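Q: Convert this sequence to structure tokens.
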Amino acid sequence: MGLSELIGVALIVFIAIPAPLFIILHFITKWKQGREISGGDERMLEDLWQLAQRMEERLETLERILDRESPDWRGKP
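A:
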């Protein structure tokens, strides 16, 4: 068996066993990372939550003002 045949056999064995295993483990790792939320995403969600809370408070304030100044505003089209 010559050197080129030995290299060919080693290449075939590598392609048949470790390469598919590496690919499968790589995609499992990527899939698990995709399910987790990053620190930046978590901060962005917290900021959005706070903005939504402030907007809700503003809307409630506007509704109270409108209720006081024009009680029938809700029934108008």
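The first helix runs from residue 3 to 16.
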